[in-house]
Amino acid sequence: MLVHRASDFEKKARDALKKIQKVEGLGVFYANFLGKKSELNDFLKSLKDLPAEEKRDIAPVIQKIRTELQNDFDAKQAFLRKKELDERLASDWLDVTKEFPIKKGSIHPISRVQRRVEEIFTSMGFEIADGPEVETEWRNFDALNVPSSHPARDMQDTFWVSSRSQDPHENTVLRTHTSSVQIRKMMEYGAPVRIIVPGRVYRNEAVDASHDATFYQVEGLLVDKGISLAHLKGTIQAMLSELFEKEVLVRFRPGYFPFVEPGLEVDFSCLLCNGKGCRVCKHSGWVEFMGAGMVHPNVLRNGGIDPEVYSGFAFGFGLTRLVMMQYGIDDIRLLFSQKKSFLSQF
Ligand code: FA5
Fold it and tell me: DSSP H helical segments within 176-283, as ranges?
């Protein structure tokens, strides 16, 4: 009886295997005909209940069915897998040798000039320092000798981050200038210190062709023994000549910044007209470049440095305006416009 049932099972299994056309059909077949819950497994289990003699005859027959069915299953599986892979390779392929026109991005002009400025100052022994864009009122103003009652505070219109309390250490602003990093680094490094700080600054002011509400500055700070304005002039003149790859003249005018004494406005000779006078330099032959001066003794003291022993110069120039000068860009707003037609020129 068992032999008949096994042979019927074998026929049924072979028919079912023949009908399978896809790999995904094999799982169900295996479960039904070869797996633990299959009829074949029931046959194998029921062998133990047979008398020994009968078992001796039937067991090899069932084992043979099992082995052959498993072999056929394996062969069919290999065949279907290969067939499906061949079909996929024939229909679904990529020509990896095909060339696509790749549109390259480019480095933003501000980053370009910033990197060059960093290289030049580094070669003169300056370190590049950094500070947060959200800064305490104290570091942005008070520590720089700008008390809250001082009219100079209105020189830079401020974006307040926290609502204004009495404590300038508590209040936070979007830094209005990179000078806020001076105090941090004096406290961190002590004297001597020789750093530049390129970074983004924010001012709550009306935007026009040469003023933006967010722009980039580069702060410079050098504190050591015996530092004078001559060092400042030499440093700036060397940096500009290196950047523009030609002799650039620098001139000082008196200027007022509470954190320096004396304070200076620094201009450089217009590179577009070689100092003869043009529209860009408003026919003066000079371009306004930066604020600078000798670090005020109060600022040195606030930074933990003894002004009786050390002196230093500081400057802060508009990197954005330098970029405009270098590339002849006549509207600052283009730099943050994200206009492809503008950016793809760099
Ligand atoms: C300052 O920010 C001072 N912290 C500079 C300084 C540093 C003086 C150290 C002394 C010692 P001022 O506000 O002038 O100064 O800004 C410096 C430069 O930033 C300007 O010369 C100009 O190039 C640039 N700048 C100022 N406002 C804007 C603006 N709205 N958009 C673009 N560039 C600006």
Answer: 180-189, 229-244
